[in-house]
């Protein structure tokens, strides 16, 4: 697991773009408390920027009207919020139970060799990041790999080779 | 053996689109529902015998009836679509292939419990699934099935999707509520139970996706039609997820009560050629493992599982053959639960990490018999000493492997284990 205690400052102010702003306002009408907007807002930031900076957390707190520590607490607790930039292709390999039984380790080993990075790391050129994650809910089509949110089922090293060739 | 109640529209092309779903019966129960009193809907669901499909198997209609009478606060519905228990992948099919069945179920439930706001808590990893679900909800709003006036009636209902972000513990109902309220997913002490004091301090019903999605069939066809499937105490059908070392893993809708080994053989294609059965995980990673001998007499219902000292759980069956190293499997499971501990209770936060260290030591060949006993002792000292059952999910399953496959742990300790699977 990567370090989830450190925030990164970009030195630049953050703001939602028009699309995220509209989605924030739509959601604001759906919850009786402003704090319920914390998780959705973190997702909106991540969709917009790919990761969540210290400035973005401060912006969310300000926008919601809550303490920055509330936003920080949620951002650091939930492991899908990226607290640092990920690769252009973020590759998650499920490591749990059925994927384990059906050979997830071969896939992880192959990706480590091919990309030259360990799980939790980003390649030097920023192209790839690799992560071993817990059960992705695709046990019936294990092993499963998720790349930038898309699921690839019944994965094998051969299929992965073909897939990587398309990710340039 | 397979039946198609919940999965009736799964194979119809574009059934996720509202026009197609409606052609095949979606939203057809609403006239009937709105002609009934809310209490009558609750009674009908009670009569169907539907039990919560998230894992606990609590009767759904009975749960609804725990809401306090004469409430002066809003009532909320939280639909649990966290689906994070390893080996569980059934609700995903509903979200993608027939989301309007879920939305219709939400309307039925909300009418029965007098709620005007439902939240669907969906796990963050379900990226493509959340898009499919949101698209269906947008369609339902546009078609007038959600919003200010449901199907032209004087009844308002908003349905909002709330995305989790990678925490297994949020499948626990009070952690789920905390997460909707914007906080860390740390479970609350009970009582008060959510039906009395749940989301935003208001009465709240939390139901699994499949439980809610079962409602349109029950309303359309009546409780007796539902009870025609399954057993007396475990009526109906379930979307079983069969995975692991079988020829045809996948999601299959079956009536409850079928013999587990027959299902593995006839539905999931049986074991791979030349392999023999070593064990079966019956209902998700937390349920105690069954030996092949025990599995002989197990049927897929709540009573049979309890009689065999395991649980029906989420219906996620994992088949283990003779290539599986049970000690390494246990390491994989303890790692999962340790990683997913929310950190609130010391026995779980520290204890599961300690268990992981011990099992790793055993696998390295540095363990002793005392370490195996210590693992058992830790299970006993962690279980039921925490706010929620995440730690018990780890200890109950671990203990079953320690008891039933102790010889594999002892083989590591005495240096005789042959590593059969890579980890």
Give the SSE layout.
The complex is a heterodimer of chains A (168) and B (423).
Chain A: H1 18-28, H2 38-49, H3 54-64, H4 68-77, E1 89-94, H5 97-101, H6 104-115, E2 128-133, E3 145-147, E4 150-152, H7 157-166
Parallel strand pairs in A: 1-2
Antiparallel strand pairs in A: 1-3, 3-4
Helix pairs in contact in A: 1-2, 2-3, 3-4
Chain B: H1 18-23, H2 30-35, H3 38-48, H4 60-65, E1 76-81, H5 91-97, H6 99-113, E2 117-122, H7 127-142, E3 158-163, H8 173-180, E4 204-208, H9 209-213, H10 215-221, H11 223-227, E5 237-244, E6 250-255, H12 260-267, E7 277-281, H13 292-295, H14 302-307, E8 316-321, H15 326-340, H16 346-363, H17 369-382, H18 390-404, H19 406-413
Parallel strand pairs in B: 1-2, 1-4, 2-3, 5-8
Antiparallel strand pairs in B: 5-6, 7-8
Structural class of chain B: alpha/beta
The CATH architecture of the largest domain in chain A is: 3-Layer(aba) Sandwich
Structural class of chain A: alpha+beta
What share of residues are in beta strands of chain A?
5-15%
Percent of residues in β-strands of chain B: 5-15%
Taken in chain order, the helices and strands of chain B follow as HHHHEHHEHEHEHHHEEHEHHEHHHHH
Mean of pLDDT of chain A: 96
Number of domains of chain B: 3
What is the total tally of β strands of chain A? 4
Average pLDDT level of chain B: 96
User: Largest interface, and how many residues on either side?
Assistant: A-B, 47 and 58 residues
Helix content estimate of chain A = 40-55%
Low-confidence stretches of chain B: 419-423
| Regions with little confidence, pLDDT below 50 for 5+ residues of chain A | none
Count of helical stretches of chain A: 7
CATH topology tier name of the largest domain in chain B: Rossmann fold
Write up what this structure looks like.
The complex is a heterodimer of chains A (168) and B (423). Chain A is of the alpha+beta class. Chain A has 2 domains: 60 residues, Arc Repressor Mutant, subunit A; 78 residues, 3-Layer(aba) Sandwich (Glutaredoxin), CATH 3.40.30.10. Helices cover 42% and strands 11% of the residues of chain A. Chain A is built from 7 helices and 4 strands. In chain A, strands 2-1-3-4 form a 4-stranded mixed beta sheet, covered by helices on one side. In chain A, 38% of the residues are buried. The mean pLDDT of chain A is 96. Chain B has 423 residues and is α/β, with parallel strands linked by helices. Chain B folds into 3 domains: 210 residues, NADH-ubiquinone oxidoreductase 51kDa subunit (Rossmann fold, 3-Layer(aba) Sandwich); 85 residues, Ubiquitin-like (UB roll); 88 residues, NADH-ubiquinone oxidoreductase 51kDa subunit, iron-sulphur binding domain (de novo design (two linked rop proteins), Up-down Bundle). Chain B has a 4-stranded parallel beta sheet, sandwiched between helices. A 4-stranded mixed beta sheet of chain B has the order 6-5-8-7, with no helix packed on it. In chain B, helix 5 packs across helix 6 and helix 17 runs antiparallel to helix 18. The radius of gyration of chain B is 22 Å and the shape is globular. The two termini of chain B are 36 Å apart. The C terminus of chain B is likely disordered. Chains A and B meet through helix 2, helix 4 and helix 5 of A and strand 3, strand 5, strand 8 and helix 15 of B.
């Amino acid at each position: 697991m990567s370090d989830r205690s450190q925030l990164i400052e970009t030195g630049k102010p953050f703001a939602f773009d028009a699309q995220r702003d509209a989605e924030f306002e739509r959601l604001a009408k759906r919850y009786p408390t402003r704090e319920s907007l914390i998780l959705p807002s973190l997702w909106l930031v991540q969709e917009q920027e790919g990761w969540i900076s210290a400035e973005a957390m401060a912006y969310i707190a300000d926008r919601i009207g809550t303490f920055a520590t509330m936003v920080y607490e949620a951002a650091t607790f939930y492991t899908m919020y990226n607290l640092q930039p990920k690769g252009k292709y973020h590759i998650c390999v499920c490591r749990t139970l059925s994927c384990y039984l059906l050979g997830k380790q071969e896939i992880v080993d192959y990706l480590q060799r091919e990309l030259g990075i360990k799980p939790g790391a980003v390649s030097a050129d920023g192209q790839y990041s690799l992560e071993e994650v817990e059960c992705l809910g695709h046990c019936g089509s294990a092993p499963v790999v998720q790349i930038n949110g898309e699921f690839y089922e019944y994965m094998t090293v051969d299929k992965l080779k073909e897939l990587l060739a398309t990710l340039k | 053996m397979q039946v198609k109640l919940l999965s009736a529209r799964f194979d119809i092309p574009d059934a996720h689109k509202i026009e197609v779903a409606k052609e095949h019966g979606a939203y057809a129960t609403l006239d009937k529902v709105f002609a009934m009193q809310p209490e009558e809907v609750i009674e009908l669901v009670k009569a169907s015998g539907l039990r919560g499909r998230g894992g606990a198997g609590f009767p759904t209609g009975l749960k609804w009836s725990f809401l306090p009478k004469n409430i002066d606060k809003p009532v909320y519905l939280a639909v649990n679509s966290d689906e994070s228990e390893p080996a569980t992948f059934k609700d995903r099919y509903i979200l993608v292939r027939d989301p309007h069945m879920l939305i219709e179920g939400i309307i039925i439930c909300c009418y029965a419990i007098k709620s005007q706001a439902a939240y669907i808590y969906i796990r963050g990893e379900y990226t493509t699934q959340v898009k499919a679900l949101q698209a269906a909800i947008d369609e339902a709003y546009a078609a007038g099935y959600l919003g200010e006036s449901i199907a032209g009636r004087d009844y308002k209902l908003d349905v909002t999707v709330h995305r989790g972000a990678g925490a297994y513990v949020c499948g626990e109902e009070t952690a789920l509520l905390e997460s909707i309220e914007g906080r860390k997913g740390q479970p609350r002490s009970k009582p008060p139970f959510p039906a009395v004091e749940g989301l935003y301090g208001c009465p709240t019903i939390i139901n699994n996706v499949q439980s809610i999605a079962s409602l349109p069939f029950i309303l359309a066809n009546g409780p007796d039609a539902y009870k025609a499937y399954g057993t007396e105490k475990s009526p109906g059908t379930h979307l079983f997820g069969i995975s692991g070392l079988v020829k045809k893993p996948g999601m299959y809708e079956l009536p409850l009560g079928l013999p587990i080994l027959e299902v593995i053989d006839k539905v999931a294609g049986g074991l791979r050629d030349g392999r023999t059965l070593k064990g079966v995980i019956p209902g998700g990673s937390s349920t105690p493992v069954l030996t092949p001998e025990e599995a002989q007499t197990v049927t897929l219902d709540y009573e049979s599982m309890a009689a065999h000292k395991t649980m029906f759980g989420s219906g996620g069956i994992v088949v283990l053959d003779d290539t599986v190293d049970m000690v390494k499997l246990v390491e994989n499971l303890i790692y999962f639960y340790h990683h997913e501990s929310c950190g609130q209770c010391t026995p779980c936060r520290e204890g599961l990490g300690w268990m992981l260290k011990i099992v790793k030591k055993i696998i390295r060949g540095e363990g002793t018999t005392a370490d195996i006993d210590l693992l058992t002792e830790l299970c006993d000292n962690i279980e039921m000493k925490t706010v929620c059952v995440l730690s018990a999910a780890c200890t109950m399953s671990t203990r079953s492997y320690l008891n039933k496959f102790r010889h594999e742990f002892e083989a590591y300790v005495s240096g005789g284990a042959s590593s059969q699977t890579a980890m």
